[in-house]
Design goal:
Layout lengths: L9 H14 L3 H23 L7 E6 H4 L9 E7 L6 H16 L4 E6 L1 H4 L7 H6 L3 E6 L1 H35 L19 H10 L10 H18 L8 H9 L8 H29 L2 H10 L7 E4 L2 E4 L4 H4 L3 H12 L2 E2 L1 H18 L6 H8 L4 H11 L1 H5 L20 H14 L6 H12 L3 H10 L11 H16 L3 H12 L3 H8 L5 H11 L2 H16 L8 H24 L20 H5 L2 H17 L2 E7 L2 E9 L4 H11 L3 E9 L4 E9 L4 H4 L1 H15 L5 H6 L16 E5 L7 E8 L4 H11 L3 E10 L2 E9 L10 H12 L2
Parallel strand pairs: 2-3, 6-7
Antiparallel strand pairs: 1-2, 1-4, 5-6, 8-9, 9-11, 10-11, 10-14, 12-13, 13-15, 14-15
Helix pairs in contact: 1-2, 2-4, 7-8, 8-11, 9-11, 14-16, 14-17, 16-21, 17-19, 19-21, 19-26, 20-27, 21-23, 21-26, 22-23, 24-27, 25-27, 26-27, 30-32, 30-34, 34-35
Length: about 800
């Protein structure tokens, strides 16, 4: 017997296989193979091993084998329970012979040899042994040894259950991180990935009854059936559901699936339920094991309001019928999650699921919900809120077109995720920039901080791949078509629609340039500037490209690609900056029937909507009639002032000084002049003290003072002198000013770039200094990032560029102005 091969009953194994292919049921396979292996290992044990250990050894099934869950090619986990370690040569030889016979029987054996006392000790270096004993089953040998172990186990579990649970949770977190904490891999790993077989086991182990909840039985049956199918197809323990296997299973109508897409969507639906259940139990263990975390979560409960209750980092709906009575509460819920970084409670998810039909009907009608969506999408945790809405079906309810890409697998050996997951990961990538530590990504973080259109940018990313679900033509063109319908339905303004449409249509542009064009060739910069049109659109497209490429797979954004993308951005930035001054409108625009535009930079046409140009034209006409014209408008939390006046030295500086004197915080500014000698200066600013909002009379006062300043009738310096000195940022956050002057960035003007610590009156001081030095400001662009000001001036002196010999003095004077 010691040398004979005892393979499992091959006829019975074949019968199990045929029954599986006929029914698709995995449970009979698992239990059938377990019974066959039980019989084999018992026979071998009794004949080859027990005679050498009379009354001193017991054979146990542990792990998956202990649960009676042996897949067609799973390992067989055995524990040999002994009263003492094998002491004699005969005993060691018997053990070696026992395992050799099992290996010769085509079983893959994983084994250990332990005493009952060793089994009831916590093995920090081999805690997997303790975990495997959670599923133990007596097979053969000395029953009294097994009874001794069973008698000790309750005490052991009482003492060490918390330690075992913490270990299980740490291992699960580590395992999930290897798959980027996502179930949506196009070729998923059925055993180890989030939502897979390991998570089913984890849920069982961490449940009070040490059993799988009934609501997960359908998911278990499906996942087990797919894993059986993989084992039978590959004749070994393979757990990756590859594209080829997806095709094969669909062709063979596995579980009635007629195509790979249906198969994978079924898989993701089940995996999502398993992963959610696993996460709930993981978080419960982590919360119980961390007093500090529990205190923090208790503190976060103070975020509760009249509509939402926060308990243990989860959000509950206060009213039982609020979703039916007030469907728009989901928009406020979206903002609440995006603002505070919280997750929905299982109870809230259940109630949302029940209300989905009525919510879908509600949002299918045209509704002006864009202002609320845009606000929420600009918040720090928008990515987390979007994922919660995607998981519950709310995203599909609000944007029905989302369904076309849900769990959609596009067979591509470069992309790792489904289309919807790729989109959500891309949006998360933007949020992750806030924590960027390396300089390469910090540059993109600064770019993100500079844009005021984060909500618009995230919305464009959300829609950028919708066209992949139609499977027709260019997916970018199809995405634009679908986006147009969505934007019209939810009330996106025409100007914002234009920007979103641009981002979606051109979302592959920069990644293509990174690898297909010579980035040292000035012609590439010219081509790029014509394609993106404005610096603002270039910034947004660069950020979208960063997020999109980084979401292809975890290693797609290599350091080389990151640097290439930054080079593309800088190339476009230089070309567009140069074009601000060089490209002028030479002919009147027929639609406006006026020479107002003649001589303005072509940038003006690219950055203004038709309505804004018509408004500027009226302002220009009023200026020609009365001398000076001012328009002041409020847009949500910001104000916009446009000044039309005959151009003169210090005009722009005076306007900036008046706003600073009134306590306004200038965020953006542009100064243009046309061939008629009329300057058009535009300022976007905030009102930190809400002076204009709370004192309507101040609006008229600001407008009147601005008109007088434009005519040189007000001493702006004296106005500014009345302002209290601002509180400076901490020393660690202060910015040393820098001034760069270039004569080769423009054909006709000198470019002056100033980076300095922002403060009230800074723009006034800089513009005044330029005027004092004999410079005419042709074009100015300013931007503010936190307390850092980034100001670019195009200046001439006597109609020509500033002489190179005067650059040092001008630079020194501007640096002094930064400290004024």
């Amino acid at each position: 017997m010691s040398g004979a091969k005892q393979p499992c009953n091959s006829e019975e194994l074949e019968r199990l296989r045929e029954a599986f292919f006929a029914t698709g049921a995995a449970r009979p396979v698992l239990e059938g193979r377990t019974a066959l292996v039980d019989q084999l290992v018992r026979d071998v044990f009794l004949q080859s091993l027990e005679p050498s250990f009379p009354g001193e050894i017991a054979l146990l099934a542990v792990g998956g084998y202990g649960r009676r869950e042996l897949f067609p090619h799973s390992d067989v986990d055995l524990l040999l329970l002994v009263d003492r370690a094998a002491q004699t040569e005969e005993a060691r030889e018997a053990l070696s012979n026992f395992f050799r016979i099992l290996w010769d029987s085509r079983l893959r054996i994983s084994h250990s040899l332990r005493t009952p006392q060793e089994c009831c000790e916590l093995h920090e270096q081999n805690i997997e042994l303790n975990i495997s004993l959670l599923d133990r089953r007596f097979l053969a040998g000395d029953a009294s040894l097994f009874e001794r172990l069973e008698a000790r186990m309750p005490s052991f579990m009482k003492s060490y259950r918390a330690s075992l649970e913490r270990y299980l949770v740490r291992m699960a977190r580590s395992r999930h991180s290897k798959f980027q904490n996502s179930i949506y891999h196009m070729e998923p790993q059925l055993k180890e990935a989030p939502g897979g077989v390991r998570d089913l086991q984890l849920v069982s182990w961490l449940s009070a009854a040490n059993a799988l909840p009934e609501d997960l039985w359908p998911a278990r049956d499906f996942l087990y059936a797919v894993r059986c199918r993989l084992h039978y197809a590959m004749h070994r323990d393979v757990n990756v559901l590859s594209f080829d296997l997806q095709e094969d299973m669909a062709e063979q109508r596995f579980w009635g699936m007629r195509d790979p897409e249906t198969l994978m969507r079924t898989y993701f639906r089940h995996a999502r339920l398993v992963y959610a259940a696993a996460l709930r139990r993981i978080e419960a263990v982590e919360s119980a094991s961390s007093g500090l975390l529990s205190q923090f979560r208790d503190w976060r409960s103070r975020l509760s309001n009249s509509e939402f209750t926060v308990l243990q980092e989860r959000v509950y709906l206060r009213s039982h019928h609020v979703l039916e009575a007030d469907p728009d509460v989901v928009l406020r819920l979206f903002e609440f999650l995006a603002r505070h970084g919280l997750r929905l409670s299982p109870e809230a998810e259940r109630r949302i699921g029940e209300a989905l039909p009525s919510l879908t009907a509600h949002f299918s009608k045209p509704r002006n919900i864009w202002p609320q969506l845009r606000t929420a999408l600009a918040l720090p945790h928008a990515a987390l809120a979007l994922r919660a809405f995607a998981d519950t079906g709310l995203l599909h309810a609000i944007i029905p077109e989302w369904e076309t890409i849900e769990c959609l697998v596009i067979r591509d050996f470069y992309h790792r995720y489904t289309v919807d997951e790729h989109t959500l990961v891309a949006i998360q990538n933007l949020s992750d920039l806030r924590e960027a530590k390396d300089r390469g990504r910090q540059r993109f973080r600064e770019l993100l901080e500079e844009t005021e259109e984060q909500g618009l940018l995230r919305f464009a990313i959300l829609l950028h791949d919708l066209g992949k679900g139609t499977r027709t033509g260019s997916h970018a063109i199809e995405s634009v078509r679908l986006a147009d319908a969505i934007m019209s339905r939810i009330g996106v303004s025409d100007a914002e629609q234009k920007t979103i449409r641009f981002l979606i249509e051109r979302h592959l542009e920069l990644s293509s340039l990174m690898t297909s064009r010579d980035l040292e060739d000035s012609a590439t910069g010219l081509y790029l500037s014509r394609r993106v049109e404005t610096i603002e659109q270039l910034k947004l497209l660069t950020l979208l490209t960063y997020a999109d490429v980084s979401a292809v797979n975890p290693s797609a954004m290599t350091p080389w690609r990151l640097e290439q993308l930054w080079r593309v951005f800088r190339l476009g930035q230089r070309a567009l900056t140069r074009a601000l001054e060089d490209d002028r409108i030479a002919e009147p625009v027929p639609e406006l029937h006026s020479d107002f535009l003649t001589g303005l930079p072509t940038r003006y046409l690219r950055t203004r909507s038709k309505e804004e140009m018509e408004s500027d034209l009226k302002l220009y006409q009023r200026c020609r009639a009365v001398g000076v014209a001012v328009d002041l408008q409020r847009s949500e939390t910001l104000w916009r002032l446009t000044l039309a006046a005959p151009d003169r030295p210090r005009l722009f500086a005076s306007a900036a000084g008046v706003l600073a004197a009134f306590g306004m915080n200038i965020l953006k500014a542009e100064a243009f002049g046309n061939h008629a000698g009329i300057a058009l200066d535009t300022f976007v600013f905030s009102d930190p003290a809400r002076t204009l909002e709370l004192n309507p009379g101040e609006v008229s006062s600001l407008r009147s003072t601005m008109e007088q300043a434009a005519q040189g009738l007000v001493d702006v310096a004296r106005l500014l002198a009345r302002r209290p000195l601002p509180v400076r940022p901490s020393r660690g956050s202060r910015i040393s000013p820098s001034v760069s002057i270039y004569n080769d960035e423009s054909e006709a003007a000198t470019l002056v770039e100033v980076v300095a610590e922002d403060r009230p009156g800074l723009l006034y001081q800089l513009a005044s200094t330029l005027s004092d030095e004999g410079c005419d400001i042709d074009v100015v662009l300013i931007d503010t990032e936190a307390h850092k000001a980034l100001d670019v001036f195009y200046v001439t002196a006597g109609g020509a560029k500033v002489a190179a010999g005067n650059h040092a003095r001008l630079r020194q004077r501007l640096i002094e102005a930064c400290f004024h």
